[in-house]
């Protein structure tokens, strides 16, 4: 009987209680991988791609970063995609996911921007999961690099 109760508890915790990560879906438009790639190409927007797992404590903490108002505002300039590594194992292998959460930036043609990384040399695509500053810095850097932020107008002096 004790084994049966323990089994039921484990099954419930892996299904019902495991889906507790909130990614601010009310204010951020998250896409599936395939649909997100299509929209990014059509709209010529960069992609923010997050690999996560519902059981992962770091992923749960990282989800809270997306409630920061500046992150919400900047997310409108990106196609936001999140991938659950347990549901998309093949895709996770394709991207070489070795730790979670893992955040990648891609251009609108799905090319990974490998220079957009955290300050950690050990886990370069694992951003600070409790503070939005690192994510914001990289989002702004991606926009600038991919010319999403207009540069200052150049003044051209003309001689008579």
UniProtKB/TrEMBL annotation:
Residues 1-18 form the signal peptide. Residues 10-144 form the Thioredoxin domain. Pfam families: Thioredoxin_7. Keywords: Signal. The keyword Nucleotide-binding does not apply. InterPro entries: AGR/TXD (IPR051099), Thioredoxin-like_sf (IPR036249), Thioredoxin_domain (IPR013766). This is Thioredoxin family protein.
């Amino acid at each position: 009987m004790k084994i049966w109760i323990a089994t039921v508890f484990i099954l419930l915790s892996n299904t019902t209680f495991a889906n507790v990560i909130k990614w601010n879906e009310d204010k951020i438009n998250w896409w599936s991988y395939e649909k997100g790639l299509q929209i990014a190409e059509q709209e010529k927007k960069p992609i923010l791609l997050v690999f996560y797992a519902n059981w992962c404590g770091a992923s749960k903490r990282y989800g809270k970063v997306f409630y920061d108002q500046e992150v919400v505002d900047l997310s409108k300039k990106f196609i936001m995609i999140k991938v659950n590594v347990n549901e998309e194992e093949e895709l996770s292998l394709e991207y070489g996911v070795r730790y979670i959460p893992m955040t990648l930036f891609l251009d609108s043609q799905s090319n990974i921007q490998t220079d957009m990384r955290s300050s950690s040399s050990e886990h370069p695509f694992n951003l600070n999961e409790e503070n939005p500053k690192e994510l914001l810095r990289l989002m702004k850097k991606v926009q600038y690099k991919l010319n999403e932020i207009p540069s200052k107008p150049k003044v051209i002096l003309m001689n008579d």
